[in-house]
Amino acid sequence: MFPTRTYRARLQITNWILIILLSALTVYLIWEGNGLLIAASLLFLLIVIERSIHTEYKLSQDELTISNGKLSRTVVIPVSDIKRIERIRRVRIGHKALITYLVIVYGDEKTVSVIPQHEEDFINQLMKIKQS
User: Fold this and answer.
1) Of the chain's two ends, which shows fewer C-beta atoms within 10 Å, N or C?
2) What pLDDT digit, counting tens, does each position of 91-117 carry?
3) Predicted structure pTM score
């Protein structure tokens, strides 16, 4: 019997860039005074920050639950349906990848990407649960 483990999502550089750009756009729109565009940019900024901060992955004995915050739906994947996990590395500078994430393939070749803070621990725990 494995205890339920919770992994928080890692904020990548792309999240920070998007938040900075949206903040700059919002400040510009406030300066220009267009109310409808200000509301739209603030709403989009709220959604991006909320999804970035509140995304978590819960591993229990029989399922992986992916929660992207209160404003998004929760994805539940049975561990028995997981076929493979692929590590993706993008935007390399030298030998260091700036963007890394995991792609989980499950069911009928469905995919979902996850960005846990501790990738190795996440993969090891998922493999332990899958083997039991």
Assistant:
1) N
2) 778 888 778 899 999 988 899 999 999
3) 0.81
